[in-house]
Amino acid sequence: MHSRFRSLAPYLFVGPAVLSVAIFLYGPLLASALLSVLDWNLLSADISFVGTKNYATVFSNVDFRTAAWNTVLYCVILIPAQIILPLLLALMIHSVRKSPMQGIYRGSLFLPTILAYSVAGVAWSWLFNPVNGLFNEIFGYFGFPPSRWHTDPNLALLCVCLVTFWKTFGLNMLLWLAALANLPHELREASQLDGASPRRHFFTISLPLMTPTAFFISVTTFFHVLDDIVGVIDVLTHGGPAGRSSSLLYFLWQQGLRFFQFGPASAVAMIIILLVLIVTWLQFRVAEKRVHYG
Amino acid sequence: MSAQPSMSHLSLHRLFIHTILLVTCFITVFPLVWMVSSAFTPNDLITAKAIRFWPENPTLANFTEASSRHPIWMWLWNSILTATLITVGKLLLAVPAGFAFGRMEFPGKQPLFWFVIATMSFPSVLAIIPTYIGVVKLQAFDTYGAMIIPSIPYIGFYVFYMRQAFRSLPGSMFEAAKIDGSGLWRQFTEIGIPNVIPAIAALSVISFMGAWNIYLWGQLVLEDSFKKTLTTGIATFADLEGTGQSWGPLMATSLLSIVPVLVIFLFAQRYIVDALAPGIDER
Predict the structure, then answer these.
(1) Domain that holds residue A219
(2) Distance (Å, rounded) from C-alpha A146 to C-alpha B157?
(3) Model's pTM, two decimal places?
(4) Residue B1: predicted pLDDT
(5) Which of A5, A20, A23 best probes binding to B when mutated, by most B CB atoms within 10 angstroms?
(6) Which of A128, A207, A214, B57 has the fewest CB atoms nearer than 10 Å to its CB?
(7) Do B18 and A101 lie within an 8 Å CB cutoff?
């Protein structure tokens, strides 16, 4: 009896965690796969198998194509920004780490990361406000005509990028700071003796040593960008004007939960999963060649 | 080219870096400064000026106005309740799982570990439609349970982090207990948990702040104004009345929603920083 408990015990420890992710995360994933080939809404009793019809509906939807293209733009703009700018900030903070200001810099730059999307949306919709908003005041001072910012079709996507960046860059900055703090500082002294410039030291020694962090950041930033823009879009632009700031996940959200088109929305979910798998696989392939594990 | 830059060059360089950082911090924090000062400024004065650091004619009118229009104190209570229960739920799942993955050997350990960890890469919106259907079918719409229970299983990072914490404890700590004939449960509760309190504290803080800020899911399943949390209430506030006339009450409510996370952040910054970016404060 006792030894049987011993061999079962680990499963009792991990069971609740495994079951909860199976039911609430993998379950819905499988359910989405099923819903994507069915024609069904919550209210009716009829369920019919429609094969790839939902996928065809989605691909012929012009809003879907706009959202897909926007998602590419979001990734192209935000992923490099979310990797490089936090690194530059971390390098600057690291270079003044002995100053008492270090904690203040780190704390205030991390501050937006702890806020809710709705709060960020409220603050920024005022900054972008056409009447007396800060952006129009500043740009007006330099002689630019007033703009409608997040309600302007050409600027909405960039406004979402700006707010998303503001709301989330703190996390990557912390991760870079930790990587910098963990570098052996004897190396810096050695290359100083060799007369290497700080820039040369960074590119030839520090950065290669931080490739595991760089890899981790590049993988997680991709997931975060997909996820984070949904909240910002919902509070700032609702995907508008005319879908110009929508993204794939926001399109899914709207189709499924505003218009209750479960089939097409689930088809979008499957497309997103495929995208995530492909990008993750590519990142691991690149990493196999480039990442040095110390 | 000298290897050691001269002293004055060095301090000029540092001054330059401090200046850039100060300006960046100022820009980053500014929207919040404006929010705080507006919350205490009379509503009709708020949009008169674009830049305000300090409230004009300071007043609490925006808070009383907000609470007369919406049950904001109920929202505050709902936020505290849901964030606390979600945090407790996550820890109840993640701490024992982390202990087993970190300190026990059993068949299927690696696949089960990856099964849990892989969920870190799931965008949170992905599961939302089937979960919503489930909530409607179970007639759980507009209940605290619908808000809380589906928010708990996002534990990939928590399990990973607890496993690291338990693994880093020296094995000798547990040897003595094994010789005494202590069971696994007692090893877990009497030796394991007391030695990973900082890790549990860090995760509690991160979880509480995350749950406090849950927005999309709350928007979806909480419709009754008395059930809403602060962050979902703020969104309805802004949507219902348009932001034009009610900046003041809106800012007051937003401030109310920031204060608890801000206080926790200020007191627990060390824990958070250490959980997210270990090693940063070691020198």
Answers:
(1) 53-290
(2) 45
(3) 0.87
(4) 41
(5) A20
(6) B57
(7) yes
User: Does the pLDDT at position A46 exceed 90?
Assistant: no
pLDDT at residue number B135 = 92
Q: Is B121 within 8 Å of chain A by CB?
A: yes
Answer yes or no: do A131 and B184 touch at CB < 8 A: no
Which residues of chain A from 188 to 247 reach within 8 Å of chain B, CB to CB? 192-195, 219, 223, 226-227, 230-231, 234-235
pLDDT (0 to 100) of residue A93: 92
Counting as low any pLDDT under 70, the low residues of chain B are: 1-10, 50, 239-245, 279-283
pLDDT on residue A292: 56
Q: Residue A177 and residue B280: Cβ atoms within 8 Å?
A: yes
Residue A145 in domain: yes
Please state the domain count of chain B. 2
Inter-residue contact B92 to B152 (CB < 8 Å): no
B282 belongs to a structural domain: no
CA distance A175 to chain B (A): 5
Residue A33 falls within a domain, yes or no?
Answer: no
B55 and B73 both lie in a single domain:
no
Confirm or reject contact between B245 and chain A (CB < 8 A).
Answer: no
Q: What is the pLDDT of residue B6?
A: 55
